[in-house]
Amino acid sequence: MLRRTKTGITTVATHSMFRILRRRYSVTSHFKLNDRYKLKCGLEIHTQLNTKNKLFSASNNKSSSHFNSIPNSQVSFFDLALPGTQPLLNYEPILFATKLALSLNSEINLNSSFDRKHYFYADQPQGYQITQHYSPFAQHGHMNLFRDIDNIEQEQKRINITQLQIEQDTGKSTYLQDEKITLIDLNRSNVPLIELVTEPDFTELQQVKAFIKKYQNLIRHLHISTGDLETGAMRVDVNVSINEYPRIELKNLPNTSSIIHAIKFEYERQIRIIETGGTIPSMETRGWDANKMETVKLRSKEGIMDYRYMPDPELPNVTLSEDIITNVRETLPILPDTLIHKLMSEPFNLSLKDAKILTIKSNNQNDLYDHESLRNYYLETFTEYKNQVGSTINCKLPTTWIIHELLGDLNKLQIPLLQCEAILTPQLFSEFLLLLHKEKISNTSGKLLLFHILETMKEVSYDKTMELNLNKLIKEFNLELTNNDVGDNELTEICQQILDNLNNDKMIQDIKSGKKPKSIKFIIGQGMRLYQGRIKPQDFERKFKELLNVK
Ligand SMILES: Nc1ncnc2c1ncn2[C@@H]1O[C@H](COP(=O)(O)OP(=O)(O)OP(=O)(O)O)[C@@H](O)[C@H]1O
Ligand SMILES: [Mg+2]
Ligand SMILES: [Mg+2]
User: In the record, what terms sit under GO molecular function (predicted)?
Assistant: First the structure.
């Protein structure tokens, strides 16, 4: 297909190209549910807690240790299930679980207990997994999704959370095809996990996507997990059914895109089965083949194990008092939704978009900064600036200059925020804002100054502290707004000279006659360039209008 674009460039696109593009970008947007088949989904999410130690042993559980370390280097006798070893519950996973349960509006069970789930697998040396089957840690929670914050179709959607249970992670097996051997790494064995189980409340793909993102952001916000899908710190199983047919469980879905593609594929596959007179097996588990982009059967009902659940006789119940729960509630940070609303109201008045930048990790966030340190930098600078100017505060200044200008410059110059804030402290940044606030420098000069500071910063090494004196720099570069010094006569002279030098009578006539009133902006631009922003554009505008006799 040939197409002529506005710029005159000819583009060639074929139908197959469009199909590929559509497939790639259509994860949720081009997917339509069939009116006759209701989609129903429920999630089971396993989250690795980044506690200091593992769940029932003293082994190191630094978030990176079991993923990046030498295999079997983070393993204690208990993790290895040597005979005679016994579990000893660490308090930290309970603390983390309490934080999560409270944040998800759950009822915490004051007397939960651990059970053994028996199955034999080489990466499960105990022969059973310790989990909470009969009396889980928390129940009856919920998470609300909203149209504006979470990009869902409905105004609001409540996802009920059946329960949260604490359990051990298993080890990891890697099958080597050529050698025909399986390697076992027990670094992950006994890492604390929380399994979250939702009710089958999801009726649209977008809700699933939104919930995963929101939950991931929550666990990062609470600092209880890295929440990374890539490392397996967060693992999502999805149960999918249509109308009242049995659910199919989807496991081993490595990222959000495969989760969404797998649900979509499964929904369509189940409809095809029903429409061709087939039956949907009860309790089938399927995986995801990323190459073929389809779900594949892993096991069916015949393969279901009898786990012989039994209370673990070596572990006492987890008994909590109301006081402990109240104490933990008091230590909780402001939760993301509340934080967004807080940032959107007085005194900050941020837009939803900017409030989200400071609260939620975005897909295009890079290694230079994270939203939390950016938020802290913003809040500290804001407070300093507000203390200086009181009620005359212009809340757009910190937003524009931190979220937009500073971030843009850091990206351009590839400077991490951490390095920047060590030198350009919130105090100094608020001084900088004050110069703009008091119109000591123009926006143009502000941009030049900030970029210059950051460029210089890039050249100094990390350990050197750079001395920063804003006033000195302004003098050195002659950036001070000269309005105060430029008298009206001088301004008239300057503007008249600019008009003369324009050498464009037609433009001047068009402005005067009102044919092209916007051309005055061009002339103001000339003045700004010549005087490098030292005279305010409003003053130029006033004077040019006066000279050209236009309103
Ligand atoms: N009709 C349904 N359609 C889709 N999902 C469903 C349906 N009924 C239940 N589910 C979902 O199935 C999941 C059941 O998880 P749960 O952990 O209770 O049991 P399980 O999958 O049998 O056990 P395991 O933890 O061993 O996988 C929940 O996420 C629930 O929302
Ligand atoms: Mg399941
Ligand atoms: Mg489950």
Answer: ATP binding; glutaminyl-tRNA synthase (glutamine-hydrolyzing) activity
C-alpha 291 to ligand 3 mean position (Å): 27
Q: How close is the Cα of 309 to the center of ligand 2, in Å? A: 16
For ligand 1, atom 8, the nearest C-alpha belongs to 200
Q: Which ligand is nearest to the CA of 247?
A: 1
Look at residue 14 in the predicted model and tell me its pLDDT.
43
Q: What are the residues facing 130 on neighbouring strands? A: 116
Which ligand number lies closest to the CA of residue 198?
1
Give the percent of the chain with pLDDT over 70: 90
Give the number of the atom of ligand 1 that is nearest the alpha carbon of residue 117. 26
Q: What percent of the chain has pLDDT over 90?
A: 66
**Closest-approaching ligand to the CA atom of 244:** 1
Flag whether pLDDT at 13 surpasses 60.
no
CA distance 159 to 141: 9
* CB distance 207 to 145 below 8 Å: yes
Per-residue pLDDT tens digits for 447-500:
989 998 998 888 776 555 667 788 888 888 777 776 556 778 888 888 888 888
Q: Which pLDDT score, from 0 to 100, does residue 22 have?
A: 44
What is the enclosing helix (H) or strand (E) of 473?
helix 470-476
Using a CB cutoff of 5 Å, list residues around ligand 3, an ion. 44
All structural domains of the chain with their residue ranges:
41-240+300-311, 334-476, 488-548
ipTM field: 0.98
Backbone angles phi, psi at 121, to 5 degrees: -150, 145
Distance 45 CA to ligand 1 centre (A): 11
Ligand 1 pocket, Cβ-based, cut-off 6 angstroms:
40-44, 197-200, 239-241, 247, 249
CA-CA distance, 404 to 417, in Å (whole number)? 13
Burial (CB count <10 Å: 0-12, 13-18, 19+), residue 182: exposed
Q: What is the predicted pLDDT for the residue at 9? A: 36
Of 1.10.10, 3.30.420, 1.20.1640, 2.60.40, which CATH number belongs to 488-548?
1.10.10
